[in-house]
């Protein structure tokens, strides 16, 4: 999964348009994009979108944060639509995942869904306190599929007046980004890069996505359909990377008992083999 496109939970029109694109996943949003008095209506619309399944996309639902008191009502409303996963905003750590997992177990059983089938992705850096919970995700639940870092709400939590300048995040946000990446790697789940908000700056989007892939992120969240193709292309391996990966895998296949090998004048070892398999999408 490379691209996760947010769609307002109260807009079937935008959902239909997003479904025509090539995003790997659509995140139907019940949180920030829906005002409070429209949330009950949005739950019903979201359920209808889930049941329509117009394309091959994975379908996630971003529920409201646990501290709003609306999370369980969101889950109860949408689970009959069998979403592939739930996005939990403002997550504070592994305990939040366990709470949502407990609710999902009961709701899956009630909806005739295989228990454990619904994944959880956490937006894990939206408050100052959440940064200190990043180490608690490892082993918290087999449902956990990814950690996404976010900057928009974090700036409000910090009381910051500016997140970035010249297209470069300031240090508090780079810290949150890097710690989220490391927490995801430690938990062995997908690290997901934050949304790019300068909608018409496609060159900037491409540069930010390529930097994310370079550093180890495997997907990016998006807020506009025209970002999808750029992000998908940026996460695709280059011809040179594919050629290198194929050579590494072939070298180890020919020498199954070797821990290190010489390839094109350089030493390679098992971490190189793991990297090569990741490039080619192999387990």
Task: Give the helices and strands, then pairings.
Blueprint: E1 3-8, H1 12-19, E2 25-29, H2 39-52, E3 58-62, H3 71-78, E4 85-88, H4 94-111, E5 119-123, E6 144-148, H5 152-158, E7 164-165, E8 168-169, H6 171-187, E9 190-193, H7 202-215, E10 219-222, H8 228-235, H9 239-254, E11 260-263, E12 266-269, H10 270-279
Parallel strand pairs: 1-2, 1-10, 2-3, 3-4, 4-5, 5-6, 6-9, 9-10
Antiparallel strand pairs: 7-8, 11-12
Question: Which CATH class of the largest domain is shown?
Answer: Alpha Beta
On the 0 to 100 scale, the average pLDDT is: 95
Give helix and strand order, one letter per element, not per position.
Answer: EHEHEHEHEEHEEHEHEHHEEH
- CATH structural fold name of the largest domain: TIM Barrel
> Class by helix and strand content?
alpha/beta
Instruction: Kindly provide the radius of gyration, computed on alpha-carbon positions and rounded to a whole number of angstroms.
Output: 20 Å
**Number of DSSP strand runs:** 12
Strand residues, percent: 15-25%
| Unreliable segments of 5+ consecutive residues | none
| Percent helix range | 40-55%
What would CATH call the homologous superfamily of the largest domain?
Phosphoenolpyruvate-binding domains
What is the first-to-last residue Cα distance?
Answer: 14 Å
Strand order of the largest sheet: 1-2-3-4-5-6-9-10
Give the name of the CATH architecture of the largest domain: Alpha-Beta Barrel
Binding site for substrate: 62, 126
Domain HpcH/HpaI aldolase/citrate lyase: 2-225
Cofactor: Mg(2+)
Keywords: Lyase, Magnesium, Metal-binding
């Amino acid at each position: 999964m490379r691209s996760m496109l947010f769609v307002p939970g109260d807009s079937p029109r935008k959902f239909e348009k997003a479904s025509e694109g090539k995003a790997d996943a659509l995140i139907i949003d019940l949180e920030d994009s829906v005002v409070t008095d429209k949330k009950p209506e949005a739950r019903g619309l979201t359920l209808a979108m889930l049941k329509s399944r117009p394309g091959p996309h994975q379908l996630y639902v971003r529920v409201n944060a646990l501290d709003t008191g609306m999370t369980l009502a969101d889950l109860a409303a949408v689970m009959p639509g069998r979403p592939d996963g739930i996005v939990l905003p403002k997550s504070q750590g592994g305990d939040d995942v366990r709470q949502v997992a407990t609710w999902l177990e009961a709701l899956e059983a009630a909806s005739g869904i295989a228990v454990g089938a619904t994944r959880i992705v956490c937006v894990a850096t939206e408050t100052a306190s959440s940064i200190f919970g990043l180490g608690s995700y490892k082993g918290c639940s087999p449902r956990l599929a990814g950690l996404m870092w976010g900057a928009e709400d974090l700036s409000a939590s910090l009381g910051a007046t500016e997140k970035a300048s010249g297209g470069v995040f300031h240090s508090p946000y780079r810290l949150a980004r890097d710690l989220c990446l490391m927490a995801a790697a430690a938990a062995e789940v997908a690290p997901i890069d934050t949304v790019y908000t300068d909608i018409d700056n496609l060159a900037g989007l491409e540069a930010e996505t390529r930097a994310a892939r370079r550093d180890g992120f495997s997907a990016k969240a998006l807020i506009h359909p025209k970002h999808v193709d750029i992000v998908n292309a940026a996460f695709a391996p280059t011809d040179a990377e594919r050629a290198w990966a194929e050579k590494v895998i072939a070298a180890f296949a020919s020498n199954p008992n070797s821990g290190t090998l010489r390839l094109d004048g350089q030493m390679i070892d098992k971490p190189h083999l793991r990297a090569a398999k990741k490039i080619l999408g192999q387990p």
